[in-house]
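Note to self: keep these together.
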Amino acid sequence: MSQIVLGKVAFVDKGVYATASTYNTFDFVVTDDSCYLCVKDGNKNHPLTDTAWWKCIARGTQATEAAKTALAEANKAIEATRNAISAAGLANAKALEAGKQADLAGRASDEALAAAVEAEAMISEGNAQIASMKAAEQSLMSQALLAPTRMELKYVNNAFFVIEQETQAAKKFWRGNPAEARDRIRSVYEREIAQLEAKSGIRIDKQMRAVRVVELTDYAPLMPAGK
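Structure:
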């Protein structure tokens, strides 16, 4: 019985990129925030930026920097909120002191009354600042949550790992029927890519790029699709 060698028909997870390792076509590696696909056999010691040897299928560099910036801004907002809370506490202390002096005097003088009014104004202003800072903090934290995470990249890696395993099994089981093997492999690929999008909101386009899907609504916070 004649056999037709299909060659490599699915991606192979090679883990974290290492310059000393040799990679072949359809091997893919990961960095801290991105995923790269090897496009030639015998790929060794070529930097991931060399597009003659590598293709980036999931880039998270810009999103990671945006998340760091958003988180830093959120921390600033939190610090400002703490300062506002401290100011409100000081204002409350002043208001209590003003009330105590009024009780000791029996009758509030015009000066004591003015101090109490000023303290109340400081309390109102402090409470307004707290509300404003909390709203800003929630907005900035929502933006940080939109950035692609390392967990989402792990979803991509796991999907292609399953595709690789089932591809090898299909090639063995249907080695006498190449057409059936190709159909089985295609079915596995389509199933895993659909599950990947359903779980993480990440879609793999025709150029093998990972695209993050986000739904925008008029009256709701920004949330990833499917969450």
